[in-house]
Amino acid sequence: MPKSQRTSFRPVDLARRHGLSAQAIRNYERDGVIPPAERTSTGYRAYGEAHMAAVGAFLALALAYGHGPAAVIMRAVLAGDLETAFATIDAGHARLIRDRETLTAVEAATDVLKKGDAPRAARPLPVGALAHRLGVTPATLRKWEQAGILVPARDRVSHQRLYSADDVRDADLAHLLRRGGYGLPHIATVLDQVRTAGSPEALAVSLTDWRARLIGRGQAMLTAAARLSDFVALDPSSGRGRT
Question: What is the spatial distance between Cα 221 and Cα 233, in angstroms, rounded to a whole number?
Fold first, then answer.
C-alpha cells in the first residue's frame, strides 16, 4: 500500500485506544516492544495499524505472562527470533501446568483435612517415633525438613526434634502426597498453603480463588496468542529471520 494511503496514528491515538499515556507508547518504542515509528516530514512519529496491533499484543502478553516475559517475546518476534519467542511462551504454559498440579495436590490435602479421621498425636513425637508411624526413615523426615515441608521444634535440653500434632498432620499429608507422586517442592507449597489458611474451610475458600486465577491466566494466554497472531499478520516482516 502506498505510504500516503496508509492509516497514520499519533502516539496519543495509540495511547487512547489502549488506555495508556502517549509517553507509555514512546517508552514501548524505546524499549523495542513495538516496531520503530516512521517519521513525518516535520519529524513527528507516525504509527500504522501494525503498531496498533503490536501494542495490543504486548499488553495481552503482559497480562498472560508478565511484563518481563512479554517484552522478551515481542523483542524476539520483531528480531525474527521465533525460537526465543516460542520458548518463552512455552515456559509460561509450563508454569501454569505446574501451578495446576500444585492446586490439585492442595485440594487433595484439603479433602484429607476435612475428613479429620487421621489420629492426632497426644504429645510431641521424637523423630524416630514419627518415622515409625509413617513407615519411613528418620533421614527421610530430615530431608522433608530441609525442603521446608516440616518445621519441628527442638527440645531445649537435648535439642532433639519434637513433632507437634500439627507437625504430625503435615507429615501425614506429605506422606500421602509423596505416594501420589508429587515432588518435594510441590509438597512444600501445599503445606505452606495449609499453614497459611489456618483451617480446612479457609483453605477451601482460597483454593476457589486460586482456581479462578488459573482459569483467568489460561484465558489471558489464549487472548495473547490471538493478539500476537494479529500483529504478525499485519507485519509479515516480524517473525522472519532466525528460526
Answer: 18
> Residue 147: exposed, middle, or buried by beta-carbon count in 10 A (0-12, 13-18, 19+)?
middle
User: Would you tell me the crossing angle of helices 22-31 and 11-18 to the nearest 10 degrees?
Assistant: 100
42-74 pLDDT, tens digit per residue, is: 888 999 999 999 999 999 999 999 999 999 999
Residue 211 DSSP one-character state: H
pLDDT tens-digit map of 99-116: 888 788 777 767 766 665
The answer to whether the beta carbons of residues 179 and 192 sit under 8 Å apart is no
pTM across the whole model: 0.69
Other CB atoms within 10 Å distance of the CB of residue 108 = 16
What is the spatial distance between Cα 86 and Cα 79, in angstroms, rounded to a whole number?
Answer: 13
- Specify the pairing of strand 125-126 against strand 161-163: antiparallel
pLDDT, position 122: 63
Cell (9 digits) for 27:
517508552
Cβ neighbors of 22 (< 8 A, separation 6 or more) are: 10, 11, 12, 15
Handedness of CA 211, 60, 77, 65 (dihedral sign): negative
Q: Is the dihedral of CA 39, 62, 75, 90 positive or negative?
A: negative
- Name the residue among 87, 93, 104, 89 with its Cα closest to residue 187: 104
Cα–chain-centroid distance for residue 223? 16
- Please give the grid coordinates belonging to residue 176: 500421602
Closest CA to 48 of 29, 67, 30, 20: 29
Residue 219's nearest CA partner among 60, 76, 108 is 60
